[in-house]
Design goal:
The chain is of the alpha/beta class and 386 residues long. The chain has three domains: 38 residues, no CATH class; 52 residues; 260 residues, Ribonuclease H-like superfamily/Ribonuclease H (Nucleotidyltransferase, domain 5), CATH 3.30.420. The chain has 13 helices and eleven strands. The strands form two sheets. It has a nine-stranded mixed beta sheet, with helices on both faces. A hairpin with a 5-residue loop joins strand 2 and strand 3. Helix 2 packs across helix 3, helix 4 crosses helix 5 and helix 11 crosses helix 12. The longest helix is centred in the last third of the chain and has 18 residues. It is elongated, with a radius of gyration of 35 Å.
C-alpha cells in the first residue's frame, strides 16, 4: 500500500484496491514518513498500549511481595494470602491500598502463590478392573436393586435393573419384594433370551452375595453364575465408579418411568417399564452389535445347587490401614505397604487358591499379582432360605 502511494496513486484508490479503510492507508503512510520501505520499523505497538495509568505501580507490587514474605515467616496465625496482606497494609496506615482481588492477581502474575494446580488425569477405560472387559474382549452385565418405592395406597415396589457395559443391553423387572430364588429365575430368563456374558457384576446385597452369617457362604446367584460359566464380580463397598453404568441406568429408569407417570398398581408400572426397556434396547441396538459377543445359553440346562463349586468369584475390596482385607468373613494380610488401596481378589474354586492383585485408577493397565494363598472351598450341602 505504501509503495503504491509513493508511486503517485491516491490514498482512496489504494484503499479500494486493497479493500481496507482510508484510515488504514493513512496510518501506514504516516509510519513510513517518506523513508525507504526497507528502513521503516513496521512492528506495531501492543494492543491496549503500555501500562495503564491506573495500574498498581511496580513499587507497590514489590511492597506486596515483601509483606507476603514477612507474614509467611512471622505471622502468628500463619496466614499470608491476599486477605492477610490487605489487613497488614491497612494496619500500617497506607493509602490507596489495592483490593484483595487485585492483590491476588498481583501474586498470581508475579508467581508468588504456593497452591498447586490440580492435575486432571484421563479416566480409566470402562471396566478397567477386569482386563478382558477393558480391552473389549468380554462383556459385563451389571445388576442392582432400586428399593424404597411405594405406590399410592401402600404398595411397595422393588425393581431389579440390568445393563451391559459395552452393549447397553438393559432390563427392568418390577415386584413388590425380591428373594434370591426370584432373582435367579429372572437372570436365567434374561440370559436365555439374550445370551451369556463372561462377567456379571453385583453389589454386596445379601440376595446376590448369599448368607453373610457364616464363613465361605456362596449364595444361589453365585452358584447360578458359576454353573453357567459366568464369573460373578462383587463391587467394593462405598466405592464410586465400579457401579457407574448400573447406577446411571437406575437414575434413568426412575426419571423416565417412576417419576414421569402416576401408576395405579404393580401391573401398570410393569407395563410402563416394559415399554421403556423396549425403546431403550432399540436405541442401543448399534452398541449391542459392536459389543463383544455373548455366548448362547446351553440347551437342556438345569440349575443344581448341590453341585461342587467350580470356577472363579471376584471381589473388589479396599485394604485397611494395615494392608489387611476381609472377604468371605475371612481376614487376609495382603501387603503392609499397600494400605487403604484397591485390590482385586480372585477366589479360584477350581484350583483351590485366592489371588490378590493391585488396582490403581491412575495406572489401570498395571495390575500386578501381590499374593496367592491356598483356599479350600466349602463342601457342605447348600442351604439358603433367601
Amino acid at each position: 500500500m505504501v509503495a503504491a502511494v509513493q508511486r503517485g496513486q491516491s490514498l482512496r484508490s489504494v484503499a479500494r484496491r486493497f479493500r481496507v479503510t482510508l484510515a488504514t492507508v493513512q496510518k501506514w503512510v504516516r509510519r513510513a514518513n517518506g523513508q525507504r520501505l526497507d528502513r521503516v520499523d513496521w512492528t506495531d505497538a501492543p494492543r491496549g498500549g503500555r501500562r495503564a495509568a491506573r495500574a498498581t505501580s511496580r513499587r507497590r507490587e514489590d511492597l506486596i511481595l515483601r509483606t507476603r514474605q514477612h507474614l509467611k515467616v512471622s505471622s502468628d496465625l500463619g496466614e499470608y494470602g491476599a486477605a492477610a496482606i490487605h489487613r497488614a497494609l491497612t494496619d500500617r496506615g497506607l493509602k490507596r491500598i489495592p483490593t484483595i482481588r487485585t492483590i491476588g492477581r498481583i501474586l498470581l502474575r508475579r508467581g508468588a502463590l504456593d497452591g498447586r494446580v490440580r492435575i486432571r488425569r484421563p479416566p480409566p477405560p470402562k471396566g478397567w478392573h477386569l482386563p478382558r472387559v477393558a480391552a473389549q474382549k468380554a462383556e459385563l452385565d451389571s445388576f442392582d436393586f432400586v428399593e424404597g418405592l411405594v405406590i399410592r395406597g401402600g404398595i411397595d415396589v422393588m425393581v431389579l435393573n440390568a445393563i451391559s457395559l459395552h452393549g447397553g443391553l438393559c432390563g427392568s423387572w418390577v415386584r413388590s419384594s425380591w428373594k434370591a430364588k426370584f432373582t435367579v429365575e429372572t437372570l436365567i430368563a434374561h440370559w436365555r433370551e439374550h445370551g451369556l456374558p463372561q462377567y456379571a457384576q453385583f453389589d454386596n446385597d445379601t440376595i446376590f452375595l448369599g448368607n453373610r452369617m457364616y464363613r465361605d457362604a456362596f449364595g444361589r446367584v453365585i452358584r447360578l453364575c458359576l454353573q453357567l460359566g459366568v464369573t460373578p464380580v462383587f463391587a467394593a463397598p462405598k466405592e464410586t465408579g465400579f457401579q457407574a453404568a448400573i447406577e446411571n441406568y437406575n437414575g434413568r429408569w426412575q426419571a423416565k418411568v417412576w417419576i414421569r407417570f402416576e401408576h395405579e398398581d404393580l401391573a401398570a408400572l410393569a407395563h410402563r417399564s416394559d415399554r421403556f426397556v423396549k425403546a431403550a434396547r432399540q436405541r442401543s441396538a448399534p452398541r449391542l452389535d459392536a459389543a463383544p459377543p455373548r455366548r448362547p445359553f446351553p440347551e437342556n440346562w438345569k440349575l443344581d445347587l448341590q453341585l461342587p463349586l467350580q470356577g472363579t468369584v471376584i471381589f473388589l475390596r479396599r485394604t485397611n490401614e494395615r494392608g489387611t482385607v476381609e472377604v468371605l468373613l475371612r481376614r487376609f494380610l495382603v501387603d503392609p505397604l499397600w494400605p487403604h488401596r484397591l485390590i482385586r481378589i480372585e477366589v479360584d474354586l477350581s484350583n483351590h487358591e485366592i489371588r490378590f492383585y493391585r488396582l490403581r485408577r491412575r495406572q489401570p493397565d498395571q495390575q500386578p499379582l501381590i499374593k496367592t494363598v491356598p483356599y479350600t472351598p466349602p463342601t457342605k450341602p447348600f442351604r439358603d432360605h433367601l
